[in-house]
Amino acid sequence: MFDFDIPVNRLGTYCTQWDYVEDRFGKKDLLPFTISDMDFETAPCVQDALKHRLNHGVLGYSRWNHDDFKQAVTGWFLRRYGAEIAPESLVYGPSVIYIVAQLIVQWTQPGEGVLVHTPAYDAFDNMIEANDREMLRCPLIKTAESYDIDWAQFELLAQRDECKVMLLCSPHNPTGRVWTTSELVRMAAICQQYGVKVISDDIHMDMAFETYVPWSEVAADDNWAIVTSGSKSFNIPALTGAYAFIANEAAREQYLKQLKAAHGLSSPSILGVIAHIAAYNQGAEWLDSLKAYLQANLIYVAETLNAAFPAINYQVPQGTYLAWIDLNGLNVDMDALQTCLIDDHHVAIMRGDTYGESGKGYVRLNVGCARSKVEQGVAALIGALSK
Ligand SMILES: Cc1ncc(COP(=O)(O)O)c(C=O)c1O
User: Fold this and answer.
1) Using a 6 Å cutoff on CB, does residue 95 contact ligand 1?
2) 41 lies in a domain?
3) I need a surface site. Which of 27, 111, 210, 347 has the fewest CB within 10 A?
């Protein structure tokens, strides 16, 4: 019913990934497999709702704090993830990182620490540092098939005096780990034991190929927030719009006071709100179809890459449309690889060390695009590795 094979030309649309590839890669006109948005049009139901709203023509101040928005969001969590989360705990924010940053600032003092599994989405590092907090890195352990938490290290970090918050990425960017209930329960118990509050960034939740469990289902107390958006799943980050469930009432009030009074953000982007309502009420079928396509893209990457270089042993991730590929087994000079990818093959593929020390020797390939483009990216990677 939905055809994700049709390529859409994004050039000339002020598109960060395509039009501004030079900013990160120093060269124009590269085929990009970079920041995490997708080349696909958003779901037809979202496009229809946006067109309908724009046809009205009046774009005055708006609201998110109404039943239509809250029920769309909580209904989505209930139907897809079996999680019954109180609608009154829901708050809006312009972006996931905005909300996460505000909560960190409100829940910690300057100089205090935020525990993060690494490698990590690069904005985490920048945001924590820009807010004068310290990132306490807990490197994941690579296994033959996946990535494990280093529990001893996790507990050591959690018990440090300065550790006040764990910023969880669930599912995890860039490894694609979808945390199991037992892992989440164990993290929750350790965090509760040492008084560490939890902020769970669940923006990749809808792209989980294993069972995704929201933090609400394992929380040991009410010191937590789930921060997320439909922006990744329905490819609508340019509309702006994110939301959070903040369990503790006082923490929620504090967040809302900052949002509205300190930052003047009472009125949301109406297009973002409309898009979320349409996506969550009517977009399930489109999303299921998209997920199947993305997973098939990842399987293609694994089969093709491993056939060319068995030593890579790339495993299809449990979630996300990001292929996190470990090249350490090949002893590659990563600078030379990038030069070859850019100059000879004209592709932009993210360096793993963008995501911290533990990403050294990796690349991250965004497969949120038509298969024909993934084929070009993988061929370029194989070509550059062969050279
Ligand atoms: C884990 C994670 N959080 C947040 C974001 C960005 O969300 P936003 O643009 O809503 O701040 C991304 C985007 O790649 C991400 O991967």
Assistant:
1) yes
2) no
3) 111
Do 178 and 259 lie in one domain? The reply is yes
Regarding whether 140 and 208 lie in a shared domain, the answer is: yes
CA 268 to CA 131: how far, in whole Å?
24
pLDDT tens track for 136-155: 999 999 998 999 999 999 99
219 and 192, same domain (yes or no): yes
Instruction: Please state the length of the chain.
Output: 387
CATH of the domain at 92: 3.40.640.10
Indicate whether 248 and 219 sit together in one domain: yes
Look up residue 160 and give its DSSP letter. Answer: S
**C-alpha angle 216/222/226, rounded to 5°?**
45
Q: Who's near 250: CB < 8 A, 6+ residues apart?
A: none
Round to whole Å and give the CA distance between 354 and 350: 7
Q: Domain limits at 198?
A: 47-282
What's the gap in Å between 96 CA and the centre of ligand 1? 6
| 23 backbone dihedrals φ, ψ, rounded to 5° | -55, -40
The model carries a pTM of 0.97
What's the pLDDT at 1?
A: 81
Q: Average pLDDT per run of 10 along the chain, which is 387 residues long? A: 94 97 96 97 98 98 98 98 98 98 98 98 97 98 95 98 98 98 98 98 98 97 98 98 98 98 96 98 98 98 98 97 97 96 98 94 98 98 97
| Position 320 in a domain | yes
Do 221 and 157 belong together in one domain?
yes
Retrieve residue 204's tokens: 């990749």
- Boundary-marking domain end, from 247, 282, 317: 282
CA 198 to the chain's CA centroid? 17
* CB neighbourhood size of 20 (10 A): 15
Residue with tokens 């020797």: 361
Ligand 1 touching residue 167 (CB < 6 A) = no
Q: In degrees rounded to 5, what are phi and psi of residue 73?
A: -70, -50
* 1 within domain boundaries: no
120 lines ligand 1 (CB under 6 A): no
Q: Look at the chain and report how many structural domains it folds into.
A: 2
pLDDT one-digit tens code per residue, 91-108: 999 999 999 999 999 999
**320 pocket-lining for ligand 1 (C-beta < 6 Å):** no
